[in-house]
C-alpha cells in the first residue's frame, strides 16, 4: 500500500469508529508497524487533520472534519459502482434512473487514474432474474416512508385470502425474485413483511403515524433480532 493511500485509510478507519482507535489496532488493520502508525498520524496532524490522541487510549478524529469529495480507494469505487448497477437493474424507475445518474456523476468527478475501475471493473452485478410487477407504487411508497405516513393495503396471502390492513411503512426490501414491504400492521399490532406482488391495491393516506420514522425503524430492527433469536442488549 502506498503511503498516501495509507494516510487516507487511517482517516477512514478513524471516521467510521465511534470509539478511540489504538495504534495497535491501526497497525493490525493496515499491516504495518506501530512506529509507522505513529509517524503517519503525526504527519496527518501536521497537515491539520484534527486527530486527537492520548497514550493508552487511542486516536479520535474530529466529527466535523470532512475530506474533499470522492476521495475514494479503488475498492470503495468499485463497491459504489457495483451497488449502483444493482439498483439500476432492479430498482423502481426513479431509483434506476438515479443510480445511472450517480454512476455518471462519479465518473465525471473522480481523477482520470481511477476511471478504469469504473469502465473496467473486476466485479459485475448479476443480471436480474425477474422484473418486478406488483400492485405497489414503489416511488410513492418511498415518499410515504420518508414522511411517516400510513398506507391502507388490500393484501392476498399465500392461500388467496384477502384482508385489508392499515400499515406504517418502514422499508422496501429486495430479494432475488420478490420485493417486500416491511411495516407495522395496525390489524396485527406487530411488524409484518408483505410481498408486494400480493398487494392487490394500495391507498396512500394523508395521515401520519405516531412517533418518528427513526423510532419505528429502531423498533423494527429489534423485532428482526428477536425473530432471529439474537440476544438484545
Distance between the termini: 38 Å
State the secondary-structure class. Answer: alpha+beta
Radius of gyration: 23 Å
What number is the mean pLDDT?
Answer: 86
What is the string of SSEs from the N terminus onward? HHHEEHHHHEEEEEH
Question: Which CATH architecture of the largest domain would you pick?
Answer: Roll
Give a structural overview:
The chain is an alpha+beta fold and 233 residues long. It has eight helices and seven strands. A five-stranded antiparallel sheet has the order 6-5-4-3-7. It has a two-stranded antiparallel ribbon with strand order 1-2.
Q: How are the secondary structure elements laid out?
A:
Layout: H1 3-16, H2 23-30, H3 34-46, E1 51-54, E2 58-61, H4 74-90, H5 93-109, H6 116-119, H7 138-146, E3 149-156, E4 162-174, E5 179-185, E6 190-195, E7 199-208, H8 213-227
Antiparallel strand pairs: 1-2, 3-4, 3-7, 4-5, 5-6
Helix pairs in contact: 2-3, 4-5
Could you name the key traits of this structure?
233 residues; alpha+beta; Arc Repressor Mutant, subunit A; 3 domains; five-stranded antiparallel β-sheet; two-stranded antiparallel sheet; elongated
TL;DR of this structure?
The chain has helices at residues 3-16, 23-30, 34-46, 74-90, 93-109, 116-119, 138-146, 213-227; strands at residues 51-54, 58-61, 149-156, 162-174, 179-185, 190-195, 199-208. The chain is built from eight helices and seven strands, in the order αααββααααβββββα.
Amino acid at each position: 500500500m502506498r503511503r498516501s493511500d495509507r494516510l487516507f485509510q487511517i482517516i477512514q478507519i478513524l471516521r467510521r469508529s465511534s470509539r478511540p482507535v489504538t495504534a495497535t489496532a491501526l497497525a493490525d488493520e493496515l499491516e504495518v508497524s506501530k512506529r509507522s502508525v505513529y509517524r503517519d498520524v503525526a504527519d496527518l496532524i501536521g497537515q491539520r487533520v484534527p486527530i486527537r490522541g492520548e497514550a493508552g487510549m487511542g486516536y479520535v478524529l474530529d466529527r466535523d472534519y470532512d475530506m474533499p469529495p470522492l476521495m475514494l480507494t479503488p475498492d470503495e469505487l468499485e463497491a459504489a459502482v457495483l451497488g449502483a448497477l444493482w439498483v439500476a437493474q432492479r430498482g423502481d424507475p426513479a431509483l434506476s434512473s438515479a443510480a445511472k445518474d450517480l454512476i455518471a456523476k462519479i465518473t465525471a468527478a473522480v481523477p482520470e487514474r481511477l476511471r478504469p475501475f469504473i469502465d473496467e471493473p473486476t466485479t459485475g452485478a448479476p443480471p436480474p432474474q425477474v422484473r418486478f410487477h406488483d400492485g405497489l407504487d414503489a416511488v410513492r411508497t418511498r415518499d410515504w416512508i420518508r414522511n411517516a405516513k400510513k398506507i391502507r393495503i388490500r393484501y392476498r396471502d399465500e392461500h388467496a385470502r384477502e384482508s385489508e390492513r392499515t400499515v406504517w411503512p418502514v422499508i422496501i426490501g429486495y430479494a432475488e425474485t420478490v420485493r417486500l414491504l416491511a411495516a407495522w400492521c395496525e390489524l396485527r399490532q406487530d411488524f409484518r413483511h408483505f410481498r408486494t406482488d400480493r398487494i392487490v391495491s394500495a391507498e396512500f393516506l394523508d395521515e401520519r403515524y405516531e412517533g418518528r420514522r427513526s423510532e419505528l425503524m429502531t423498533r423494527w430492527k429489534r423485532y428482526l433480532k428477536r425473530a432471529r433469536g439474537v440476544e438484545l442488549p
